[in-house]
Design a protein that fits this description.
Elements lengths: L4 E4 L20 E4 L6 E3 L4 E11 L5 E7 L1 H7 L1 E3 L4 E3 L6 E8 L5 E3 L4 E9 L29
């Protein structure tokens, strides 16, 4: 098991639990809204919500991914404003969550509400090699076909 250092940034996080796997099979750690009072998010509005914590991954072969909570999106229209978040191994600042209300009703976010999931992934480090063309013997069926090519 990999150890990731976590630091408390906001004192009011002591009122809530630290990120944790809710069930033994949970892939992500739940991140909570570290706010002191309820926050309204109007339809089509985006708000930046603090989690009250910072992490330091340190290992360059690991990154953190911030993912939305499916229930918030499905039932309330609350999704991540940037669709997905990336935490680089050398970032040490507070984890902030951009929440976007894509729904048609005002959403009230309460202190301590689970708002996103933090997932750690392995990173494959690569070195790019500039070429003038790809080997003609290595042609693929797809080739250069892009968006909608398999419809």
């Amino acid at each position: 098991m990999k150890i990731i250092n976590i630091k408390i940034i906001r004192n009011n996080i002591n009122n809530f639990s630290l990120p944790q796997h809710i069930t033994p099979g949970s892939a992500g750690l739940d991140l909570l809204a570290c706010i002191e009072k309820p926050v309204s998010i109007l339809p089509k509005e985006t708000r930046l919500i603090p989690t009250g914590i910072a992490i330091y991954i340190e290992d360059i072969e690991v990154a953190g991914i911030i993912l939305p909570r499916s229930g918030l999106g499905h039932y309330y229209g609350i999704v991540l404003g940037n669709t997905i978040g990336l935490i680089d191994s050398d970032y040490q600042g507070e984890i902030m969550i951009s929440l976007w209300n894509r729904g048609s009703n005002k959403f009230i976010l309460y202190p301590g509400k689970r708002i996103a999931q933090l997932l750690f992934i392995s990173i494959l480090r690569v070195k790019l090699s500039l070429v003038k063309s790809f080997d003609p013997f290595m042609k693929t069926i797809r080739g250069v076909k892009g968006f909608g090519h398999s419809m």
